[in-house]
Amino acid sequence: MRGKTVLITGGARGMGRETARMLGAMGAHIVIVDWEGEAGTRLRDEINAGPGSAEFCFCELTCMGAVRELAANLIKAHERLDVLFCNAGITDPVRRVTPEGYEHHVATCHLAHFLLTHLLLDLLKQSTPSRIIMISSEAHKAGDGLDFDDLNNELIWKDHSKPSNSASFTAYHRAKLSNLYFMYEMAERLTGSGVTINAISPGFFVNTSIYRNLTGVFMLGAKIVFGAGTLFGWNTPQRSAKTYVKLATDPDLQTTTATYFEHEKVKATSDLAKALEPRKQLWEWSVRQTGVGSAVAPNVE
């Protein structure tokens, strides 16, 4: 990976951090994007002490203006981008809304990455063969899909002033399904470009900080599951990061696209994730929200 540049959103902690460490050890230049400045700068310094190199970019991905600023700065500073990891994600029982009015699961997991990918697409295309890697989840199978009358998750919180673990799980399910709709649609639009896009399931209940906002019995259950899984090595960030690294580096996957992986193996997505109509609807809505991409797919030979 020497001479290659890798960007990881949510790169300061969890699976993003372990991926950054592994790819840095292989000589890559890592762009760590996160809102956790202390953790991000520590990781940057750690990687810079080894064979690779790193920089830390503070970015609050819930803010579309901050995403645009991030992309503009990266384009000025870098001549290439070989791998883009759309890794950042949240699950939060409190319904939080961005200054632009988007619910946080929608903004962080989907819209921020939709926008960032499009803004960096020319950089990816001039670095071909290059790779986009979406971090989805088996949670995409654990619900009824998107509600196009409620894409901003207004209705799943019965009371916006009170936390709801149930609502957060529904919002997370929708966000991870959206990641797969994006992957499938983007793969078609990138045909022949030299840029691939694939998705990853990290596995079940990976022991990261993403679940830190859960409350009550849900938090207790998470701690028990995480503790047992870590003890036996079932759900560690390091185990999940091996799949991230494989998708970023394996020469046999250079032309693989629109494929879903878990623990270094191909895995089937749900039939719902492969449905064409909701995928197109979500794309059109995302174009309207961000102003990037085209609602009409380009003609591809």
Write the layout of secondary structure elements.
Blueprint: E1 5-9, H1 14-25, E2 29-34, H2 37-48, E3 53-58, H3 64-77, E4 83-86, H4 104-119, H5 121-125, E5 130-135, H6 165-189, E6 195-201, H7 216-232, H8 237-249, E7 260-262, E8 265-266, H9 276-290
Parallel strand pairs: 1-2, 1-4, 2-3, 4-5, 5-6, 6-7
Antiparallel strand pairs: 7-8
Helix pairs in contact: 1-2, 1-8, 3-4, 4-6, 6-9
What overall form do the CA principal axes indicate?
Answer: globular
Counted by DSSP, the helix tally is 9
Rg over CA atoms, rounded to whole Å, is: 18 Å
Strand tally is: 8
SSE run = EHEHEHEHHEHEHHEEH
Q: Kindly state the percentage of residues in helix.
A: 40-55%
- Poorly predicted residue ranges: none
CATH architecture: 3-Layer(aba) Sandwich
State the distance separating the first and last CA atoms: 32 Å
From the helix content, strand content and strand pairing, which structural class follows?
alpha/beta
Strand content: 5-15%
Number of domains: 1
CATH topology: Rossmann fold
Q: What is the name of the CATH superfamily? A: NAD(P)-binding Rossmann-like Domain
The largest β sheet comes out as: 8 strands, mixed
Strand order of the largest sheet: 3-2-1-4-5-6-7-8
CATH classification, class level:
Alpha Beta
